Amino acid sequence: MKNWFFQKSKPKVDMDKKDWEKYAIRSNDFQKIFYFNQKTNVRFSLSFMSTLTDETIIQESLLPYLLEKDFRELEDIKLIVPIADVQISDDASQIEQKIFNGYVLLNIDTEEKRFAFVATQKEVVRSVTQPEVEFSVIGPKEAFVESLGQNLNMIRKRLPVKELIIEEVTVGKLSKTRVAIMHIEGVANQDNLQTVIQRIKEIEIDAITDSSYIVQMISDNHNSPFPLLLDTERPDRVAAILAEGKISVLVDGSPHALIAPTTLVEFFGSFEDYFLNWMLSSFFRLIRLFAVAFSILITPIYVATLSYHYELIPKDLLATLITSRREIPLPPILEALFLELTIELLREAGARLPTKVGQTIGIVGGIVIGTASVEAGLTSNVLLIIVALSALASFTTPVYKMGNTIRLLRFPFLVFAELWGLLGIVYCFCLLMTHLLKLTSLGRPFLEPLYPPRLTDFKDALIRLPFNFNSKRPEYLRTEQPVKFSKAKANEKKDIDE
Question: What one-character DSSP code corresponds to residue 364?
Answer without folding.
Answer: H
